[in-house]
Amino acid sequence: MKDQIDKLNDGLIMDKKILTFIQSYFKGFTSTGAGQNSNVFTTYLSDDNYDYQETRYYYDEEKEFFHLTSLSNLFLILNSETFRMYNLLKSKDVEEYAFAAKVLKIDEGYIKGRKENLFTFSFSSATEVENNHLWDTYGDKRSGVGICFSVMNSIQEWNGFHLSKIFYGDEHNFNEYYEAKQEFEKSNGIKISCDMSSLIGFHKSGMWSNEKERRILYFDSRNSEINHPLKEKPEILQKDGRTFFTRYVEMPLFTNRTEMANHDCIPLLKIKKIIFGKNSNFSSFEKDEINLKLQDIFKNVYGYEVEIEGLAF
Predict the structure, then answer these.
(1) pTM score, two decimals?
(2) Which residues share a beta bridge with 68?
(3) Residues 221-235: pLDDT tens digits?
């Protein structure tokens, strides 16, 4: 019995020692779910966004943003009353996640698995709404649509969801952590398993720095206390007609029917303005039709009016 108690106490001491070590490289983080299997200590970064407040991965700037998309996607978003987050396997950047993960010597199979379970929604600060590079690249050469939106609830209360700017070409902290972790494990005769996915997802290569991206991230760790938000929809693979499933996470959009008390733990976003690109090529009839349809949706579905810019005759 005494041996079991001593072993338990030793494990608790090591848990605390490991947490202190991790915090020395990632300031402010707490870990949860620590456990020991033989000499392998497993710990998880907290799912509570509240615990990110003292870190650089907590967004403390103005919560006003804009997201570029197509006209067809705009109506899909409005009709579903949600923004959807898709996993990183859908990303055009093949180095998503892998950029920082490779510094931690994470193998390709593990990277693919984590990309499958890491969901993101990308956008920019509202201050970048006139950024021509963004409109050219993500706004269909300035013929797309910009959705201006704000965060309605406190990000402190989010669970499983995190909001941060992207860090470009800034992987040195992971490099230092990896080298120090190897030394720590060797000197203590243990192995540390700590999934850094919720941090890795906020790092990209410096070649993307002109994007000035902000991102909401959801990592499907299955440790979140909220109801699991993952959804799946069947899609047909055009190549051979096979059916496969696309996994996504939905974030609700604010309407006049929204009960704020029911949206503490997940992002609640409100559309404030719709901007049509300067190269939008609509006839007078099409402009009138689009404008009337949007006004109708916001009045009758969302219960408020929004400014629509770029459809003037």
Answers:
(1) 0.87
(2) 146
(3) 654 444 556 666 555
